[in-house]
Amino acid sequence: MTAAAAARQILTRLHDIMASRMHAQGKLDAVVEIIGEALDSEVCSIYLLREGMLELFATRGLNKAAVHVTRMALGEGLTGTLVANNETLNLAEARAHPDFQYRPETGEDKFHSFAGVPIVYRERAVGALNVQHVDPRKYEDVEIEALQTTAMVLSELIGNAELIDEEEVGATEAQTGPVTVEGLSLVSGIAAGHAVYHQPRVTIDQVVAEDIEMERQRVYRAFDKMRDQIDGLSQQAEFGKGGEHEEVLETYKMFAYDEGWSRRINEAIDSGLTAEAAIERVQQRTRMRMREIDDPLLQDRMHDLEDLANRLLRIVSGQLGTAASQGLRRDAILIAKNLGPAELLEYDKRRLKGVILEEGSLTAHVVIVARAMGVPVLGRVRGLRGIVREGDEILLDSDAGTATIRPTPQVAEAFDARFAKTKERQAAYAELRDVEPFTRCGTRIQVLMNAGLRDDMANLPLVGADGVGLFRTEFQFLVSATLPQRERQLRLYRDVLDAAGDKEVTFRTVDIGGDKAVPYLASGEAENDENPAMGWRALRLALEREGLLKAQARALLEAGAGKRLRVMFPMVSEPWEFDAAKQVFDDQLAYLRKQKKLLPDEIQYGAMLEVPALAEVLDLVIPKVSFLSIGTNDLTQFLFAADRANPKLAARYDWVSPAILRFLRRIVQATVGHNIGLGVCGEMGGRKLEALALLGLGIRRLSITPVAVGPIKELVRQVDLKEIEQAMTGFLASPPASLRDALENWAKERGIDTQ
Ligand code: PEP
Ligand code: MG
């Protein structure tokens, strides 16, 4: 009989037992008989976790009286060790192993050889399946594989028969213990919750195949689909930038088309497994092999292969959704390699407490969205997905740039204390809600907030901002499955203006494109952009898709009826673009006038200054606009030629550095004496040290993320403008080696808190 046929025979017998009406204990008893027989072993035993201890649940060959009597702690004896380490043991002489322990009640003294595999349930080792022989012998690969496959079947039984309490699954957390990872704080704040993978691992409901040919067809089809997806990935935004995408794609392709991989999966199906179980089985084997090789480069590749295997599993099982589509059941810390802004918006804000990414950068749109949602984000955590398991408890301290996974009680206690302090600080900021931000020298600084969703407006009274300095209208487009029609836009804008009451709101026309791709629009054209951020996006797209801008113009003009309306155009690079966009509004205004509709009392049009070219023609633009708002997120990426979404560049370019600050100062100087409003609406303005620098350049209006309003108000109240202006003049005339350090020291000497 071939190995596959033998394996199939075992699986068929296991399948019959699983399908029988026997109770769970009866099934376990039958399983040890089948495996014992098949491997011709004198002993076969099953241990499962109960109340934190591994308990002998079933045996063939050991004293039956030991069943439900013999118990051992994790890490104790061979069984405890293999479960604690989640590893297979294959020993010709069990006694020679340092962890060997003799249990007299089992009568196992006469057995020399030992092989054991962990039973894994929900990614955690919760038991063991062991065989023992009198003769000293090393087990063959096919025998170990038969054990591993049986362990998978047992894991299915555990799930169905509720042999293990949910708490037991949690109790094995000790097996890897607490780990603290470090990363880059992308959105500050601290949070606690349980790990949720954005793309959850697939649950395998059935391990044993009913119809092998059908399983083979299923896996063929899934491979085809996966290969198509991988071939198509090069078009997608997440792979479209970063320079690394070629390499990443090549690796993906190499794995996707790897004959060896598909052959091994087919062999596993031949042995009687379902397509899902076969993929997982092969993956387990690969994981084991990789673990033996201590090479970080290979470990990285392993992540790619895991990704791909997971993708294949999702396709074959039809479990395609992200964790958002399944809903969050408790406080969650989201784990992902990277996310798009729209993907993040799909999560339930009340349950989403934090995000940890392997990639990410400060001004990536997903990070801006998270900031707007008040969700702390830790980014650029290396090897994250190899450390965290679904459901792990996580304490995220983005302020310190760390996250502790599976914390000890002591760490949790210290965290609680920090949590309380942060709450206190927030409460102190909340007290500033009704305090107007005057500098020490008596100048009123405008502190506004950025928003993008209807819900965000609730923050306006909460943080006490002067208004909304940037309403990102594209968020509505990002969260919709289809293009939002004019009526829906109108409703949103009306609601926003109503919520703002007397306070001003500046609506920015859609800035779609770049990393804010929407599937129903622009995909054909934008996909061809090699550099989407510098491609067909924002006003460029809106001016070409005139219908889109017309609809938005009308919606805004109608929403602003009887009020003051402020409209701002993104990515204006040349003055004519501003004219063209304004013309669309003028035409719609004329139309509404003809229709005798109520019009806005006043309309102010402005431009975002985020493309450096515009700064060179300010003399031409200033006469046209009511206001200019500097978008430092895009401006810096263009000025430094550094993709704002590229994690590798995230920490390289500093806002507090001469190039960007001198550039901004020139803009401020060019507007002096003209009657236009000038402000900053990029993320830079929401950081204390950066805001201090901006005040020193003459900026008097900041539109920032809501959570930063309190801290920035506090900063403003500590500043004497003359002093900081003088300091900045000095720093920019002859910049110190580190302008950031110098400014920090300057602030510290004056007791200004910039942290
Ligand atoms: C900016 O570029 O600074 C900005 C505020 O716009 P966004 O981040 O939406 O591109
Ligand atoms: Mg921008």
Summed up, what is this model?
α27 (688-697) crosses α29 (721-733).
Question: Explain this structure to me?
Answer:
The chain is α/β, with parallel strands linked by helices. It folds into four domains: 3-170, 2-Layer Sandwich (Beta-Lactamase), CATH 3.30.450; 172-200 and 331-431, Phosphohistidine domain (Glucose Oxidase, domain 1, 3-Layer(bba) Sandwich), CATH 3.50.30.10; 210-320, Enzyme I, Chain A, domain 2 (Orthogonal Bundle), CATH 1.10.274; 432-749, Alpha-Beta Barrel (TIM Barrel). The protein is built from 30 helices and 22 strands. Strands 7-14-13-9-10-11-12-8 form an eight-stranded mixed sheet. Strands 21-20-19-18-17-16-15-22 form an eight-stranded parallel sheet. Strand 15 (446-451), helix 16 (459-463) and strand 16 form a beta-alpha-beta unit. The longest helix is centred in the middle third of the chain and has 23 residues, at 409-431. The chain starts with a helix and ends in a 6-residue tail after the last helix. It binds phosphoenolpyruvate and magnesium ion (MG). Residues 368, 470, 472, 511, 610, 631-634, 681-682 line the site of phosphoenolpyruvate. Magnesium ion is lined by residues 570, 610, 631, 633-634.
